[in-house]
From TrEMBL:
Gene3D superfamilies: Winged helix-like DNA-binding domain superfamily/Winged helix DNA-binding domain. It holds the Pfam family HTH_20. The lineage of its organism: Bacteria, Bacillati, Actinomycetota, Actinomycetes, Kitasatosporales. It comes from the Bacteria. CDD domains: HTH_ARSR. This is Helix-turn-helix domain-containing protein. It comes from Streptomyces macrolidinus.
Amino acid sequence: MTEDDVSRPSETVLPEHEVRTALLALLAEVGTVTATEAAARLGYSSGLCSFHLRQLARYGRIEEVPVSRGRAKPWRLRGQAPEPAGFGDLARGLEDESYQQWLAQKEQVPEEWRRDEAFSAVVYLTPEEMAAVADIMRRALTRYEDREQRPTIRPEGARPVAVVTRVFPLV
């Protein structure tokens, strides 16, 4: 087993939405990317990135960039960068898809990973308080941000975990 094997996320436990969301964010940031470039930037294998790039293309989110030479296959967002609402819809759909996969496969993961920490609450807030709650949630997660880009700092046994927070007024 090499250091890369230990520091790279296991492809069998990655929620699909995490990889696709990361690829879309990367494309929005850099414009075009190949599977190899995405793998180097995101810390996944090039095969995993290639698979999810093809899936995003299949659903019309991205497209191949025409190239005249070489074997490189660069990808870009289809048309203009997606509107935030469109990206939000995609992200929510991928979150829901991933959660359904979790429920279907929950009994196949080790016992210590079978907990599901889902919760929700209705609270009465002003718009300013609502923004503050969202900010608190974002800041609570910042201490773990570097682990995605720097696999070597992940603690032993760390796996990707989806954290979904939606703060919105009830109408």
